[in-house]
Design brief:
alpha/beta, single chain
C-alpha cells in the first residue's frame, strides 16, 4: 500500500532482494502518524524525488511506526516495528535511512527536519552518497 505514492514498508526481505539485484539504495522514511514534520518530509522532500526518479535507480519506502503491523524483516521472519527501529538505532521522528542490500547503511541517517532551509541539500547529498555506495 502506498501513502501519497510512497509504498509502505511491508516486506524487507523482498525489498533487500530487489536492492541486491538492481544495486540501488532504499530510501526509508521512519515516521509516526501524529508527526507533522514526518508529513512535511514525505510530502515536500521525498515525494517530489520519488515521482521523478525511476524505481530502477532508487527505492522509496515508509514505515509509519505506530501503525505498521505484519512487517516481514530482512531475514523473512515477522518483526515488530519497534524492534526494527531499535536495530536501525532510530528513536527520533522523522528519520530517513539509506540502506543497501543486506541492510547495509549507505549514508548517514537524516534526523528531524531543520528549519534553516538546508534539508533538501542534506537529502540530495545523502542520496548521492547512497547511490555511490550501493
Amino acid at each position: 500500500m502506498a501513502v501519497n505514492n510512497i509504498t509502505l514498508l511491508a516486506n524487507l526481505a523482498k525489498d533487500m532482494n530487489h536492492l541486491e539485484k538492481e544495486k540501488i539504495p532504499l530510501i526509508l522514511l521512519l515516521s509516526r502518524s501524529d508527526c507533522h514534520f514526518c508529513h512535511e518530509v514525505r510530502n515536500n522532500y521525498l515525494l517530489p524525488i520519488a515521482r521523478t526518479v525511476s524505481d530502477k535507480k532508487l527505492m522509496f519506502r515508509e514505515l509509519i511506526s505506530d501503525r505498521s503491523q505484519g512487517l516481514i524483516g530482512a531475514d523473512g521472519n515477522r518483526i515488530a516495528p519497534a524492534l526494527l527501529l531499535k536495530n536501525l538505532k532510530v528513536n527520533f521522528f522523522p528519520t530517513v535511512v539509506f540502506l543497501g542490500s543486506g541492510m547495509r547503511i549507505l549514508a548517514e541517517p537524516l534526523l528531524g527536519l531543520n528549519s534553516a532551509g538546508f534539508y533538501s541539500a542534506y537529502l540530495d547529498q545523502r542520496i548521492v552518497t547512497a547511490i555511490k555506495n550501493a
